[in-house]
């Protein structure tokens, strides 16, 4: 497989998981998710150990899940609590595989690999999702492409100029040199534009005329997330790479979870320090961002099909691609380490 | 393949086959069926021996079939009677494969294996389809699952409690012990419930209040049929496993013909000894049963997909599954005998 | 592959290719086509050399093409003219594969094989497409079948009797002997019907009652075209196989370009020497011919599926198929010569 097995992946937004079972395939594994009465999240292989019917077609009863087909009842630990025929003694060796889950940063994280290695400290640090004083919007999209094409896309924002010409693109993105650096398992791509016109989105957020400094700082985190620190500040307000809270600022959160080879669950969100009390802004932003992201989906899915249709061609990397290249190298190194260790 | 080759399979309800050619793939073989002027049924490989166009796109002429593409005309024995160019001499070595067919029990049966072994005495005994004094309704559904999943489903009716909770399910199905026994190539699963409430369907049939005895006796027959003797009788009317005509009774007939690996033609019918003159009952029953069966189709097709998505998991069998397990063992034993004999 | 690589194939009608990029897969190669400012046609691998996004999603700028994803700009020679980041020096080793194209006979021809062998003299001689004094109509259809099934279809017009019974079929097609002969890499099938009733289409064209002589002369040309000389003349007007301009005459042009194995771009046209000034006739003819061709598509796609569903059966050839058989032999001989030479 193309992904790291021993890692935390986002299975769902926390708000997506409720009492009713939710089916989602994570890294090739069909999974069913639901909440217990105490709110805790259960994640199980979405196949009844009896006849493999997806458990997500069944019904939650208390903290347990009852299969729709013959009524086998499994506890939140995946172990049988009631056999189909009530007179049959419960066989506790009957069980569904369960997965370790943690709720953090508005997400439900799932560990699909070796359970003993499931250390919550390894959850990628998506702190802006939970920062106080910041408003947050987010959404979910399935995309029929390799998850790494999304990483490439997000670690190189020059594409905004062409793909998102009507919203967040601007020519200066192509004129400003970028700085790419690796720090441990992280990759940073920094673009600092001074004295530019703010594009429509940021002009509206800043509510002030005149030239601005604009920044985009992309940060890749294992196994497959990107945080982008974005914003604008009026020229002369003193914004610097080190400190840039003088204008309006956001953190775009992007998490890519492989569904199968060639398909991805994409979770995006944005934390912002402006219009924080404006629910209307949030709703409009979510809709607008949906439109922007549909432009990306069209590109990414066409790219995936084209890769398949041109098997002798390889992806090439130029200077703008260094962030994506470094991120893929880190994924690949980690993936191989784990395969060899196993 | 997963099926027995030397066996009779239902190709169609007799009423489905008429003068116009009918295309249906049976055990991986594309077949065209039509009736001759004397009403006899012809079954041929559905591919013109000339350029392989499906013969079912062609036209019946008398007892023969003319290919739509170039007009090659084949007799009911599959042998060429007229070449595309009228001046060409008829080449009688040009022929389509034909299949032996027999009409019995309201069905057209086809023998797909070694012709010499096609003994009509081997047709499974579906006598209730043709019993005098019994009314009959039946229908056809294509299902995208392995035919053996349907056998499992029918040999274990505990699933009615959960899957058909609104119609024929009732909790007593889970509380009553079942008896499973093998007699030669047949498997019987017997469930006898005494002093229970009749579920809605049977209450309506009996037209009488008060507790009933209810029975379900499933009988598996090679290569792939299940007859279910079902009904209710008032408590105290004297119904016993040996003799139970004291109330209302039906025979559910289920025939599963493999189309290809992973897809099945499902023919179901019901013979009943009540409301026999009530055409309205028959029509309502057919509609209602269609709804019940759609619940099964949703389950069976999801199960088939789940088996594919969880390749390392195996179907497991509990006490309720013994009927299906035994039926599969008989199929598998017969299949291997034939493969080794061939 | 099933086709000849070193050959000219029709990529598109000339009128189909304009300033906006057109995507079309030719012999397994995704290709983008567009016109330069001087009207010349450019054909390139439809995958950006950078990240493989289809170039056809991009934008033409002057004579160049700019990729939608990151703005890499390629000249009409496929070579990079501008990198995504403007400050990056242009790397002229970055390039998309280009294909040699020639416009001739109303078509854009593409050479997909060894460029050094791309001799325009090898373009099949479809002179009727460009003959003065003849009116012309044509259209394009994608068909999900092997391109050779279309050649078979066109080299044996007996199928018109059955498949096109309502328009151009007539029983005499089956009664008249045909003459098949090979001349070098060409195959001719000639059918000359004397003193027959004209079918509806030709009766309308001739505008004259009484028996006619009708002819169909099919000519196969490498790599995959068929010209059919068709028409009728009043009996006694002196029409002969050698000279038959005494009545109404047309040349049906059929060009089959493999898209992939099992799918074909079909270009058909007709040059006619009657109703040449009647635009209404042309429009009606195109519509009617579309209907006739849909009858062929239904047959050809069913044939393709049937070939797949009956893997142990082979296409067989009778006298009427000699034209198609010879054409396939010539294709296969040429194909092998090229494979061995390579």
Description of the structure:
- The structure is a homotrimer of 342-residue chains.
- With 342 residues, chain A is of the alpha+beta class.
- Chain A folds into two domains: 115 residues, Rieske Iron-sulfur Protein (3-layer Sandwich); 211 residues, Naphthalene 1,2-dioxygenase Alpha Subunit, Chain A, domain 1.
- In chain A, strand 16 and strand 17 form a beta hairpin.
- In chain A, helix 1 runs antiparallel to helix 6.
- The longest helix of chain A has 31 residues.
- Chain A is globular and about 80 Å long.
- Chains in contact: A-B, A-C, B-C.
- At the A-B interface, loops of A face helix 2 and helix 5 of B.
Provide the CATH architecture of the largest domain in chain A: Alpha-Beta Complex
CATH superfamily of the largest domain in chain A: Naphthalene 1,2-dioxygenase Alpha Subunit, Chain A, domain 1
Oligomeric nature of the chains: homotrimer
* Total number of beta strands of chain A: 17
Q: Ends of chain A: how far apart?
A: 14 Å
* Count of DSSP H/I helices of chain A: 6
Largest interface in this structure: A-B, 26 and 26 residues
CATH topology heading of the largest domain in chain A: Naphthalene 1,2-dioxygenase Alpha Subunit, Chain A, domain 1
Main beta-sheet strand count, sense and barrel state of chain A: 7 strands, antiparallel
Question: What number is the mean pLDDT of chain A?
Answer: 94
CATH C-level label of the largest domain in chain A: Alpha Beta
Rounded radius of gyration of chain A (Å): 22 Å
Spatial arrangement of strands, main beta sheet of chain A: 11-17-16-15-14-13-12
Outline type of chain A:
globular
H/E series of chain A: EEEEEEEEEEEHHHEEHEEEEHH
| Structural domains of chain A: how many | 2
Instruction: Specify the structural class of chain A.
Output: alpha+beta
Helix content range of chain A: 10-25%
Give the uncertain stretches of chain A in residue-range form: none
Proportion of strand residues of chain A: 25-35%
């Amino acid at each position: 497989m193309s992904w790291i097995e021993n890692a935390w992946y986002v299975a769902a937004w926390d708000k997506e998981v409720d009492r009713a079972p939710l089916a989602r395939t994570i890294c090739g594994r069909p999974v069913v998710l639901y909440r217990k009465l105490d709110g805790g999240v259960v994640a199980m292989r979405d196949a009844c150990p009896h006849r493999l019917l997806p458990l997500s077609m069944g019904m939650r009863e208390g903290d347990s899940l009852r299969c729709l087909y013959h009524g086998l009842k499994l506890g939140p630990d995946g172990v049988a609590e009631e056999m189909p025929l009530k007179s049959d003694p419960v066989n506790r060796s009957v069980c569904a595989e369960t997965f370790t889950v943690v709720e953090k940063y508005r997400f439900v994280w799932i560990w699909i690999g070796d359970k003993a290695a499931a250390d919550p400290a390894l959850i990628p640090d998506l702190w802006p999702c939970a920062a106080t004083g910041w408003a947050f919007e987010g959404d979910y999209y399935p995309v029929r492409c390799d998850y790494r094409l999304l990483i490439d896309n997000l670690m190189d924002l020059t594409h905004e100029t062409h793909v998102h010409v009507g919203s967040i693109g601007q020519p200066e993105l192509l004129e400003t040199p970028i700085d790419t650096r690796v720090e441990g398992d992280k990759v940073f791509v920094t673009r600092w534009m001074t004295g530019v016109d703010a594009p429509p989105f940021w002009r509206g957020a800043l509510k002030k005329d005149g030239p601005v400094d604009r920044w985009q700082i992309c940060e890749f985190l294992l196994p497959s997330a990107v945080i982008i620190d974005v914003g604008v500040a009026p020229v002369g307000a003193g914004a610097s790479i080190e400190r840039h809270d003088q204008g309006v600022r956001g953190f775009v959160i992007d998490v890519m979870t492989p569904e199968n080879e060639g398909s991805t669950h994409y979770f995006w969100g944005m934390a912002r320090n402006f219009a924080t009390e404006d629910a209307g802004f949030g709703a409009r932003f979510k809709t607008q961002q949906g439109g922007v992201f549909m432009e990306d989906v069209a590109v990414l899915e066409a790219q995936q099909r084209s890769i398949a249709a041109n098997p002798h061609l390889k992806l090439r990397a130029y200077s703008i691609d260094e962030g994506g290249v470094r991120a893929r190298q880190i994924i690949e190194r980690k993936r191989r380490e784990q395969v060899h260790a196993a």
